[in-house]
Design a protein that fits this description.
Strand content: 15-25%
CATH superfamily: P-loop containing nucleotide triphosphate hydrolases
Number of strands: 7
Shape: globular
Mean pLDDT: 93
Distance between the termini: 19 Å
CATH architecture: 3-Layer(aba) Sandwich
Helix content: 40-55%
Number of domains: 1
Radius of gyration: 16 Å
Structural class: alpha/beta
Bound molecules: adenosine-5'-diphosphate, magnesium ion
Oligomer: single chain
Length: about 190
């Protein structure tokens, strides 16, 4: 049982793509305040343009960030994934966001990473301000895009053939690390916060 929120103060960083795959792989509801293609691809997807209800086992995708409506859900979330890309503005905005929610369990999700060194640099920048904050990254990959397009989750797409297992090997291992956090043996179900 968990409420997972994915947020960012910047669009186009991969929130919707990740939220859909995580929701489907966990068997969770996907809920958003932003119109997205997920609504046509996933039967357990809900769109709430105004007030968003709190519901267990849900991945909230806060696109079209409306702080007023999102804030209540964010405060009630078991974990907030703060999505960023390798861009100074995106990182800075993430730091400001984290500051506002620093009493929450936060996982920084650096997306579209071209080089592991870039991920290390982002992690360091975050840790300068918030030491020990949980951090994970996903390389630049078509895994999430192709998954969403076909209506399959990242795991379903990866597992669909030998070919996809080959093509998405590295990206899937990074995605799986994130997914694992929320499955029964994951750290977020053992009450650990970092
Ligand atoms: N790891 C990634 N590598 C490359 N492209 C990505 C990655 N994650 C997401 N994308 C692509 O980036 C674009 C924006 O993603 P989206 O999930 O809509 O972002 P957001 O919801 O934050 O606006 C989409 O075209 C998506 O397929
Ligand atoms: Mg979106």
């Amino acid at each position: 049982m968990a409420i997972i929120s994915i947020a960012s103060t910047k669009g186009g960083v991969g929130k919707t793509s990740l939220a859909f795959s995580l929701a489907k792989d966990l068997g969770y509801r996907y809920a958003t305040n932003d119109m997205s293609v997920v609504l046509n691809k996933y039967k357990n997807a809900r769109y709430y343009p105004n007030k968003i209800p709190l519901h267990p086992d849900t991945v909230y995708d806060f696109g079209g960030f409306d702080a007023q409506h999102a804030d209540e859900i964010l405060r009630a979330s078991d974990i907030i994934l703060v999505a960023t890309i390798n861009d100074l503005n995106s990182i800075m905005k993430s730091l400001i966001f984290i500051k506002n929610y620093k009493e929450k369990t936060i996982l920084v999700f650096a997306n579209m990473i071209d080089n592991p060194n870039d991920a290390a640099m982002i992690r360091q920048k975050i840790h300068e301000h918030f030491p020990n904050l949980a951090f994970t990254y996903l390389r630049r990959t078509k895994l999430l895009k192709n998954a969403l397009e076909t209506g399959m989750s990242a795991r379903e797409l990866y597992e669909s053939s030998k070919h996809t297992q080959h093509v998405y090997k590295q990206a899937y291992s990074e995605y799986h690390k994130i997914l694992k956090l929320f499955t029964t043996d994951g750290q977020y179900f053992k009450g650990q916060t970092q």
